[in-house]
Amino acid sequence: MTDAPAQITAGVLVALETSPRALIGHRPQEAVVGPWWRGLEFLLTLDSLPFEFATLPVKCQALGMDRIKNSPNSPNSQKGVPSVSGGVTPAAVLKFEHPNKIGEITPWEIDFRQLDPGRLSTSIRVRSGRSVSALSIAMNQRVHQRGVSPKGWMTFGIPSNGAVDKWQAKDVTDNAFLSFGDSDGFDGISTAGFTGNVISFQTQRLENFAESCGFHLARDTPDAHRLRSKAGLASMANLEGRVAGLLNSGDAQWSEAAEQALMLEALVILTDNEAHFDRSQAGTRRRALERATDLMVANLEDPISIEEICKESGASWRTLDRAFKEQFGQSPKSYYMRLRLNRVREDLLSGSFSGRITDAANRLGFWHMGQFARDYRLFFRELPSETRGVQK
Predict the structure, then answer these.
(1) Which residues, 6 or more positions from 281, have their beta carbon under 8 angstroms from its beta carbon?
(2) 126: Cβ–Cβ under 8 A, 6 or more apart, which residues?
(3) Is the pTM of this model over 0.90?
């Protein structure tokens, strides 16, 4: 979808990457949708608006709402109301004449100050789940960024290279991972043409996940983390890629597994120093590998989470990751997914299997058929339908 030009009298434009009518009445059980959405409400504003754009007032108090009610994780439960992208709410694009208006509709305290002459414009693309919120932001002018991050959320930024000069009064190098802390003050200077991705995690959820996976997460305060290893740099690239995919792909699945993958990459980055590197013995890794692979085989049809694998195997994620890469040359997540893909392929090639491709995929825990087809083709170099054709 392209952003059509418009005169925004209220200062905020929301562009939905689906028909707005598909969102009307979308009321999930969970209303916790991230720190970027507080104050926005679609339910009473979309019915009379054009197909793709909804102009919202900066102050939403007149609607009697204090937060948005459409979570990308919950299916639509209203009778007669269509679901959104199979129960996944798409990203929204917001444009501001001044970035400080972000603070008027979210719990962020924002005090951004333009430094160079010229007309300043800001746009953000945002999407939120139960425990994670992702955002991309672009500003065309050099800006002194000041503010306070939302309470109860740990927020991090990945600016494009050269997009930030200073962070917390320190020079910022390329490949920097910026921390906003949790309800802490931040101070930085972004360059003209600034772009970056921002990701927020519910603090308690991230801390619990870290503990389950064996990460020792210290209290994080605003800072610019300098990555020291190839693994850290790879995790930052993976995190940025995952965020971009969730924000820009119309059918990207937002799920608990997707949130855990984001948390895992962030934790690898935050613990990218010698004190956190794995020092396990070979025997320890071998036993952890055996327990983990046994768990995976026993749970092919009902895949278990990263947290459960770590808990049940009794090993930290770093130990498991090292063990799998030593043995198989791939991460535990990749091994587990390929194990399940192999089982689907066996079913499709079996003369005794008479079900549909969807049935075979769903039985092994693949519910997002678009992503399944892409993963299957990437691994086997053919589509599931082509495999089925071979069987016939």
Answers:
(1) none
(2) 34, 36, 37, 91, 92, 94, 133, 134, 135, 136, 247
(3) no
